[in-house]
């Protein structure tokens, strides 16, 4: 494996007295897709929030592009090239569709993504550009959330449960767009409960259970039985 | 004609109340901070203008060129150095700290300037008036004040809905975590909002000081007027704040006409009526 773009080393995370992650380690190289799977409450979202800087960690617990960034706040991680598509989409309700996208690119990081490219990727958004973001369907809102993250021209895109609450056909449509996003050379960490979708897309898989990595490996090498054992802890 | 005159004066003073309110609404909207020291900051701006006009011998309206940027600077520093540390899930710390700040400003001004009533002298413009018809006249100064108030409200509305800074304000107001994910540094955005709020406070303070006597103790009453205008207007738009200010100004003018002792009371009564009939304000925030 070449030098990883991101390396997480024995990361612990806490909500007050509650420990959500126990010594989690993970690596992703440039251009790779890593899937993080696990049941509800396994610590998947916490892992992404820690990487994105929304939760502070030990300085050397997270290395991004060769630099320790565990204690770097979220806005500074964004300017280094990490973007998170948060669980539940979380668009800015008082901003229009286009404003949501534009604010995603407000740091002005150079790269292939801009407003026209995002509209090419999700043509339906171009038609609704001046609509309040709250008036869109769930799937369209998810497209805005992904577009908003892409607008920052990230090196690493973190996607938290992008299929949650969406109809299967919409999920397939969004996943069908992944290859054209990846063509731009970014790395992707997807967190999913929908294992089939995640396994089909990913190079590497990490399975979390109660805050610990219980299974990790190349997507092709893991058997279904090993995954369900790790997932359900049986 | 007498009543038309009274209502007109009420509308004009409402512009001033709207400016008291706009600064409050701005920072409450962006960071959920209730600034108890807001009224005292208005008075602080008035004293700054007093110092500037006395030192330079310029018209109070010209002193705005110094007082406005100075107050904005104070606002930025106050937010970065103090108020950002009080913000969190709990609404109480910012309330307590700004209450303390209010006490400090009042007593600091008392130490420096004594309790004497002061006034900014704007010259002949103070008594000039424009005749609108038989028995109906408006003072030039109140008219300038009202025009400035409209310009400030329109400027804020434009800034909020048409500029990148305004977008950052709205985004941070909507969702602080996600605002950070798109690269907005909350501490800086909040400080910009406070700077803008105190720039508006500076204009309001100078206009207040030209209009009436002031002393270090009058801040809290201006704070109440500001709150009432914000709540009557609702948090949906800056224009709502202007309407809230006008409703308050007109109610006070009518009250004062009926009995001079009823001026402030009539404003409070109008506020209570709006609160009872439309608790969300006249122009409520649309929530998605």
Helix and strand arrangement:
The complex is a heterodimer of chains A (234) and B (288).
Chain A: E1 6-15, E2 18-28, E3 33-38, H1 44-52, E4 62-64, E5 67-68, H2 74-80, E6 82-85, H3 97-104, H4 115-121, H5 123-127, H6 138-150, E7 156-160, H7 168-182, E8 187-192, H8 195-201, E9 204-209, E10 212-218, H9 224-232
Parallel strand pairs in A: 3-8, 3-9, 6-7, 7-8
Antiparallel strand pairs in A: 1-2, 1-4, 4-5, 9-10
Chain B: H1 2-31, H2 38-56, H3 60-86, H4 92-113, E1 129-133, E2 136-139, H5 140-162, H6 164-174, H7 176-181, H8 186-211, H9 219-233, H10 238-258, H11 263-277
Helix pairs in contact in B: 1-5, 1-8, 1-9, 1-10, 2-3, 2-4, 2-8, 2-9, 3-8, 5-6, 5-8, 5-10, 6-8, 9-10, 9-11, 10-11
Shape of chain B: globular
Q: How would you spell out the order of helices and strands of chain A?
A: EEEHEEHEHHHHEHEHEEH
What level of helicity do the residues of chain A show? 25-40%
Structural Rg of chain B: 19 Å
**Straight-line distance between termini of chain A:** 32 Å
């Amino acid at each position: 494996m070449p030098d990883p773009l991101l390396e997480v080393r024995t990361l612990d995370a806490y909500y007050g007295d509650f420990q959500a992650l126990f010594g989690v380690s993970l690596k992703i190289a440039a251009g790779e897709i890593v899937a993080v799977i696990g049941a509800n409450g396994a610590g998947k979202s916490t892992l992404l929030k820690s990487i994105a800087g929304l939760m502070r960690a030990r300085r050397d617990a997270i290395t991004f592009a060769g630099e320790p960034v565990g204690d770097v706040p979220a806005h500074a991680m964004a300017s280094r090239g990490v973007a998170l598509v948060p669980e539940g989409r979380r668009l800015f309700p008082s901003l229009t569709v286009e404003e949501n996208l534009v604010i995603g690119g407000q740091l002005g990081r150079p790269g292939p993504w801009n407003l026209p490219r995002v509209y090419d990727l999700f043509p339906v958004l171009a038609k609704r550009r001046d609509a309040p973001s709250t008036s869109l369907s769930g799937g369209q809102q998810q497209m805005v959330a992904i577009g908003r993250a892409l607008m920052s021209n990230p090196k690493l895109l973190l996607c938290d449960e992008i299929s949650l609450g969406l109809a299967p056909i919409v999920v397939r449509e969004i996943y069908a767009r992944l290859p054209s996003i990846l063509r731009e050379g970014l790395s992707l960490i997807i967190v999913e409960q929908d294992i089939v979708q995640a396994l089909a897309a990913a190079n590497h898989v990490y399975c979390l259970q109660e805050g610990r990595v219980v299974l990790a490996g190349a997507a092709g090498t893991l058997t279904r039985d090993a995954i369900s054992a790790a997932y359900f802890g049986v | 004609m007498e009543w038309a005159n009274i209502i007109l004066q009420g509308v004009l003073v409402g512009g001033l109340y709207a400016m008291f309110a706009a600064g409050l609404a701005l920072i409450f909207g962006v960071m959920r901070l209730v600034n108890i020291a807001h009224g005292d900051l208005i008075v602080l701006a008035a004293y700054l203008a007093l110092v500037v006009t006395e030192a330079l011998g310029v018209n109070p309206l010209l002193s705005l060129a110094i007082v406005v940027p100075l107050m904005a600077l104070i606002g930025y520093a106050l937010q970065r150095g103090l108020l950002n540390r009080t913000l969190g899930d709990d609404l109480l710390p910012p309330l307590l700290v700004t209450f303390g700040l209010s006490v400090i400003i009042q007593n600091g001004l008392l130490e420096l300037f004594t309790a004497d009533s002061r006034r900014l002298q704007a010259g002949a413009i103070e008594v000039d008036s424009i005749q609108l018809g038989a028995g109906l006249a408006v003072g030039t100064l109140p008219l300038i004040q009202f025009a400035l108030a409209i310009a400030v409200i329109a400027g804020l509305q434009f800034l909020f809905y048409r500029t990148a800074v305004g977008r950052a304000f709205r985004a941070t107001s909507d969702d602080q975590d996600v605002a950070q994910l798109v690269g907005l540094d909350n501490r800086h955005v909040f400080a910009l909002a406070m700077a803008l709020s105190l720039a508006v406070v500076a204009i309001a303070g100078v206009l207040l000081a030209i209009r009436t006597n002031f002393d270090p103790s009058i801040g809290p009453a201006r704070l109440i007027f500001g709150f009432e205008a914000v709540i009557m207007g609702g948090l949906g738009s800056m224009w709502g704040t202007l309407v809230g200010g006008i409703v308050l100004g007109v109610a006070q003018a009518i009250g004062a006409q009926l009995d001079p002792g009823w001026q402030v009371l009539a404003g409070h009564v109008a506020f209570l009526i709006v609160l009872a009939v439309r608790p969300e304000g006249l122009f409520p925030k649309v929530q998605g």
